[in-house]
Amino acid sequence: MLLCAVCLNPLQPEKGELICANCSRHYQPVALCPDCGKPLEVMTACGAIDYFCQLGHGLISRRRLVYGYQE
Questions:
Q1: pLDDT digits (tens, 9 = 90+) for 44-69
Q2: Residue 27: beta bridge partners?
Q3: What is the torsion angle, in degrees rounded to the nearest 10, for the CA atoms of residue 49, residue 51, residue 54 and residue 55?
Q4: What number of other Cβ atoms are within 10 A of residue 34's Cβ?
Q5: DSSP letter string over 5-33?
Q6: Which residues have CB under 8 Å from 42's CB, separation 6+?
Q7: Burial of 37 from C-beta contacts in 10 A (0-12 / 13-18 / 19+)
Q8: Are 12 and 39 in contact (CB under 8 A)?
Q9: Mean pLDDT within 24-40
């Protein structure tokens, strides 16, 4: 569960964003590499979505993704 960086309340997904119901802050979800914690490059082709770590960890399976957020 992701928590608001300001008030530490749970964030709720809504229309592609994460929103804090308590302080009304909006965050963008970000896919992170499970090995290094850095944001992944999202590649789309022919309807498929792939995640790639540019720091040498290669393609990352959707099952291994870790999610974070940014303002």
A1: 988 889 999 999 999 999 899 999 99
A2: 18
A3: -170
A4: 15
A5: TTT-PBEEEETTEEEETTT--EEEEEEE-
A6: 31, 49, 50, 51
A7: exposed
A8: no
A9: 94
